[in-house]
């Protein structure tokens, strides 16, 4: 609760910077502020409490994921300094929007009431629409913002419709009350229908197949930093919220009660397989790195959806997977931001010879791609290991084999980028070593490796 | 004092090499690889004194993964092979000038680290991690410092990487499945599992995919020749000298004892695949025009025989296989080094363009001849001991396996001697061939000394490996 208040306060504070003319100091001060928020959040960890008539319920799950979101936001804010160099007058707006986005994200995992959940998702989405279209004079960015807005508001509508049906079935928005009455014998059929509609809406935000069509275009058109935000923070928020929705509303036992569980599990398996496969196969053909990472994100969404098959036990695994994925994503995107600064596009040709001109950043990008591909000792490997372990335990060995085959396919496109960096001749000179980009890249890949060496640090948080 | 010390030395060595800068890198790397060799010899003494040099520490609690390194005779033999070959391989590269040498030598040491870890790991997942880690350095070594056309090299290396990764991922699934049954990844607990015949078959096949690609066994060998040819000689030595032994070692350590029923049931098929590799490799080697490719195919033939030996599930087969693994490791490194020595002087590996070296460089000729003869298993060389034991074990299973496997000696003698004739003998070549330098000589002499010493007196190695092989055989035969 305090976390949410502190974040919102920080956001307002960021807006005031404009008036006080402190633009230059905004990035460091916001980072310090967010570190403070992280400390507050840390003290809330382990306590369970609910506030304001159950509007907000703080749990281990919510605080752990909130910490992840805050850390990711710190990285993204640090990257903004360099990214908005050419728009110095707007930087406070952009930073403030990111902080508000974080507020929405935290609300989405702390909700105790479906109204709060919807509030969170709208705060997050509107901030994302703005950021997607934030490169005002660029046609592609406008297109991305418009596309995302149209599709996103449609998804929000579906979610809202789902919430209405649940209200109709239960007579309440309160999550705890719904949880209680979800096992009653004469449950109207529109409770599962409403849930499915909400899940569809969330799958849209996660960009799982077949609700993924917006992702590549929006990722490519948006400014690179926004793409970084969408593919790391926004995706992680969406999947965590989806997980929490299903767990908190007691959806699985309620389905089991009505003999619908098998159908639901089949749907999850199909969506998961489709996301992995479509994402990977499409990614193989991309030449634009942002688009490639968008498709890779779709396939990772497929992996993360596997946790929905074992909702009662896999919270820790999901936290670990999302952390590993997001840290690798941040490291990769910070290199992309460095390489593609002042370029018209993010084509793979820009990365030629990076291994020679800038070995450190090339090594970091290699590391993050290896992590995403699931090669030890990076945490991406352990994420997949724990996920596969969990899923085989639940008896879905065929799904795991499909996932393994997909991991092999994914190596194909991750290595395309690595090959471009190491085996092609450099075609451009890059000058300048922006400190913050280097710092973010080094810290995030180091965290990634540390989590690989000591997975228990994160994995055991939610047990 | 325990075996983790070797790993620590190699890992620190890799970092130290990288930070030593391009000029010092090769010397620092040599120093650390020799330190690792020294350390493994000291540990061998501790091992002989029956001291406990194994290590087991809890690492991840859930799922239950431990950092377990176990040194038995088999593991120590493989560690010694790695520790002895690494300095030779590093030293053999002293005549070459590599761009970005610090990265190159750091990767070599890192690879030695990962391979040593693979030979020592006693926890399935730890083993898997080392196994995968060994793949990354060789990928970059072959890609960045390799030779030939960049586009072709890229294709060959990527194919190699995806192939091997694909195989090992199925092994990972098998390990996870075993974990569900046993609740632990520790090897002794996996040995104790009672799996049904069909479960064993699936696990055996998942392991087989990983190992058959790595070794390589027909029909999973298609990556091999191209990568051997395109990789820098150091990379080829690492691949053929040590890395493919990882696959053979793993067959003995993991595949056979965990799934013995499947191994017994389908023994004929797997021996036949190995023997098929012998014949196929030998015949293809006959027609090679590139020296490195010829050696690659001869290597395919030899490891096919070793693999056949392991699948006999007899003590002779296993012992012969391990002896031959070590012998082949040394001889193949020597042969690839000879190819490199020729390349340094003539800038070509085309057999047709060579010849007439004997008159210019008798020293090199005699050393090369010894290596060639060792490779065709002439009595008195280490390879004879290994190959003969393997053939003997094959004859116990079925005489025809031994007959067909024995063609490795006949065909091997044919293509190796023909190669030797074309490369070394004949008219004096118009280009001058400088005699071997002192540095090159040291590498050759070290390898030849090992081959001949153990050829006459293999007992130390036999004594080292036999008890642990017998233990493994007991596990295989318990049910």
Automatic annotation (TrEMBL), chain A:
It is an enzyme of class 7 (translocase). It is a multi-pass membrane protein. Residues 113-410 form the NADH:quinone oxidoreductase/Mrp antiporter transmembrane domain. It catalyses: a quinone + NADH + 5 H(+)(in) = a quinol + NAD(+) + 4 H(+)(out). Keywords: Cell membrane, Membrane, NAD, Quinone, Translocase, Transmembrane, Transmembrane helix, Transport. Belongs to the complex I subunit 2 family. NDH-1 shuttles electrons from NADH, via FMN and iron-sulfur (Fe-S) centers, to quinones in the respiratory chain. The immediate electron acceptor for the enzyme in this species is believed to be a menaquinone. Couples the redox reaction to proton translocation (for every two electrons transferred, four hydrogen ions are translocated across the cytoplasmic membrane), and thus conserves the redox energy in a proton gradient. PANTHER family: NADH DEHYDROGENASE. This is NADH-quinone oxidoreductase subunit N.
TrEMBL record, chain B:
It is found in: Endomembrane system; Membrane. Keywords: Membrane, Transmembrane, Transmembrane helix. The keyword Transmembrane applies. It is a multi-pass membrane protein. It comes from the Bacteria. The keyword Protein biosynthesis does not apply. The chain crosses the membrane at residues 6-21, 28-48, 68-91, 103-122, 128-148, 160-180, 200-222, 234-254, 266-287, 294-315, 321-343, 364-385, 397-417, 438-457. Belongs to the complex I subunit 4 family. This is NADH-quinone oxidoreductase subunit M. It comes from Flavobacterium azizsancarii.
